[in-house]
Amino acid sequence: MSERLEDIAQAMVADGKGILAADESSGTIKKRFDSIGVTSTEENRRDYREMLFRADEAMKSCISGVILYDETIRQKAVDGTPLADLIKAAGSIPGIKVDAGAKPMAGFPGEKVTEGLDGLRERLQEYHKLGARFAKWRAVIDIAEGTPTWGCIKANAHALARYAALCQENGIVPIVEPEVLMDGPVATHDADRCYQVTEWTLNTVFDELFEQRVLLEGMILKPNMIVAGKNASSQAGAEEVAEKTVRCLKSCVPAAVPGIAFLSGGQSDEEATQHLSLMNELGPLPWKLTFSYGRALQAAALQAWGGKPENVAAAQRAFTHRARMNGLAATGRWTAELEKAA
Ligand code: 5MM
C-alpha cells in the first residue's frame, strides 16, 4: 500500500467502506462489558476484539480501517498473530487512538480539554512501527447553560491541530475528532443549538489546522451529526438531521478534505445508519461521507457475544450485518426494507 498521506486518507474513505472505532479506553470497555455481565480482563478484551477482526466478510467488504487502543495494537490473537496483522490481512488499515483523554479544563468549570501532546512524536514513531497508518484524537465539547466557552473551543481546536501536524510529520493520517456531545450531563439543547456550536467548533478547528500547516488532503474529519441533545423535549427528524448536518459541513469543511467519517455519539444503530444514508442521498458532495462508529457498529455484536465462545459466530453475523448496512449508507443505498430483509 502507498505510504503517501493522501493515498492512505483516500483508502480510509473508499467507496462503501468506513471505519470501525474499537479504541475504547479501559474505563469505557469496562462499562461495555459490565452491560453484558463480562469481566473486563485483558484476555476477554482480546477475545472480543479478535472476534470482530476475524469477521472476514465485514472486514473485507465494509471496513477500511480500525481504530485501536494502545493495549490492542500490542496484543496477539490466540494463535499468536498480532491483532494488527489480522486487520491488515483483511485489507483494512490499523489505526491508533493517541489522545490521553479529556480532562477537566483549569479555570473552565464543567468543560474539558483533551491532553496527550507531551511525548506524542515518539509515541507516533513507535505506533508507525507497530503498523498504524492513521491516528485519532477526540476533543469533547459539551453544551449546557453558558457553555461551551470560546476558551474551551479554542484550546481543544489548538490541541487537535498540534496533534494533526505531528501525525503528518510521522507518516500517519490524523483523524480530527471534535465531538459536540449529544449525551452530555444536561443534553436538553435542540438541533439548532447543536448546529450553532458545531459550526463554531469546526470553523475554529479549520483555522487552527491552517495555522499549524496541516495538509487537508492528508486528514479525515470525524464530527458529530447535527442532532438534539438526548434529553431534549423534541428530537429532529431524520431528514432534518441529514439536511442540517450537510448544510453545516458545507459551510465549514474545505473541499480539499478527502472524507468525513461520523461518530455515532449515542444514536441508535439504525438511526446512525439512516442519517448517513440520507446525507449521501443529498449529493453530489465535495467529500466522501462515511462512518467511524463505535457503539453503532458494535452494540448488537457485543450483546450477541455475551463473553461466550459458542456465540462468536452469532456475534460476527451481527457485526457483519451492521457493517453491511453502514457500507450501503456510505453510498446512500441503505433502505429500511434491506434492514428488515436481513
Ligand atoms: C470507541 O469509543 C472511542 C473511545 O472513547 P473513550 O476514549 O471515551 O474510551 C470514541 O472516541 C469513539 O471513537 C467515538 O466517539 C465514536 O464512537 P461512537 O460510539 O460515538 O460512534
Automatic annotation (TrEMBL):
Catalytic activity as recorded in UniProt: beta-D-fructose 1,6-bisphosphate = D-glyceraldehyde 3-phosphate + dihydroxyacetone phosphate
InterPro entries tied to this protein: Aldolase_I_AS, Aldolase_TIM, FBA_I
Domain of life: Bacteria
Keyword match Lyase: yes
Pathway named in the protein's UniProt entry: Carbohydrate degradation; glycolysis; D-glyceraldehyde 3-phosphate and glycerone phosphate from D-glucose: step 4/4
EC code(s) of this entry: 4.1.2.13
CDD domains noted in UniProt: FBP_aldolase_I_a
Keywords attached to this entry: Glycolysis, Lyase
SUPFAM superfamilies: Aldolase
GO biological process, one term: glycolytic process
GO molecular function: fructose-bisphosphate aldolase activity
Pfam family, one: Glycolytic
PANTHER family (alphabetical): FRUCTOSE-BISPHOSPHATE ALDOLASE
Family: Belongs to the class I fructose-bisphosphate aldolase family.
Protein name from the UniProt record: Fructose-bisphosphate aldolase
Lineage summary: Bacteria, Pseudomonadati, Pseudomonadota, Alphaproteobacteria, Hyphomicrobiales
